[in-house]
Design a protein that fits this description.
This protein is α+β, with helices and mostly antiparallel strands. The protein has 6 helices and 8 strands; from the N terminus they run αβαββαβαββαββα.
């Protein structure tokens, strides 16, 4: 009887995985980052950085020195960004460097903000429109929620945005964070704790923290893959216990993330957040039998 029940559970799980997988994305994987047909060259200038893309000569003098970046970031250089808050007044403070500053990962944050900041970089090409078909539960407002610093709240307010920067670090241990281990070089290594190991086995670890001063920090690309808007490829046995294949995602998220899933007990969108926020996970509460899809 137990063997029959186990087989039934395995078949149900397989059916859930199958319904979550997709064989191929329906639209170009660059999605919104096709940039009105300009494609890759809208962000990456083959020659001369922002100057080669026809931007103002006041552009950062190191424009293009990293990733051939072609957007003008000069309005952002040296600005202080205070993101994320638990009390409404204080957050994580960082100063933006130039493209070729001493902290390359912060330069990556600068690149993202050159189009997604509505405060210092309001002249960028971002048009404040959603490019994805959103589930009905998201409402009808057609504004994209990434004009940081100018999103219909107080201009210059970044406290309502997820913590990001060199001071926004991921922790391990204690009653809130996962029972994981941070290496001497700042990487989250193979899980050492029981709860985190179970989570990895059931879902995976898709986020990509950036090591700085021997600590894993949160940058834009920690959660987002800027080159894949609607699909994430899972290699069987790599980073995840999920079956290998292409899974639906949204918002350039680096993991299966599908709020439109019709599976009644789907928790894959919550699982994405739980990769770092272990305190809210089923595993930390002693629940290990909850399916992902």
């Amino acid at each position: 009887m137990k063997r029959v029940s186990l087989l039934a559970l395995m078949l149900l799980a397989a059916a859930g995985f199958a319904s979550a997988q997709i064989t191929a994305p329906a639209t170009d994987v660059l999605g919104a980052h096709l940039n009105y047909g300009r494609g890759c060259a809208a962000c990456h200038a083959p020659h001369s950085g922002a100057f080669g893309n026809g931007n103002a000569k006041t552009a950062d003098a190191t424009s293009g020195n990293i990733a051939l970046w072609g957007e003008d970031v000069s309005s952002l250089v040296g600005k202080t960004i205070t993101s994320g808050s638990t009390n409404g007044t204080t957050g994580y403070v960082d100063v933006l460097p130039g493209i070729a500053g001493t902290t390359p990962d912060m330069a990556g944050l600068l690149m993202c903000l050159s189009c997604h900041d509505g405060n210092y970089a309001s002249a960028a090409m971002m048009k404040n429109q959603v490019y994805e078909t959103l589930p009905a539960t998201y409402g009808t407002v057609n504004k994209i929620p990434t004009l940081l610093g100018n999103d219909n709240t107080t201009v210059g307010n970044y406290l309502n945005d997820h913590p990001v920067g060199l001071t926004a670090t991921i922790g391990c241990g204690g009653t809130y964070d996962w029972d994981c281990t941070i290496s001497a070089t700042g990487s989250i290594v193979t899980p050492s704790g029981v709860n985190f190991a179970k989570f990895i086995q059931n879902y995976g670890f898709f986020v990509s923290p950036k090591a700085y001063n021997n600590a894993p920090t949160v940058m834009c690309t920690t959660c987002h893959n800027q080159h894949l808007m609607n699909v994430v490829t899972v290699t069987n046995g790599t980073k995840s216990g999920l079956p290998g294949g292409n899974y639906a995602t949204m918002f350039f998220i680096r993991a299966p993330y599908n709020p439109a899933s019709t599976t009644a007990n789907s928790n894959q969108t919550a699982q994405f957040c739980r990769q770092c926020h272990g305190g809210e996970s089923n595993e930390m509460a002693g629940g290990t039998a909850v399916t992902t899809f």
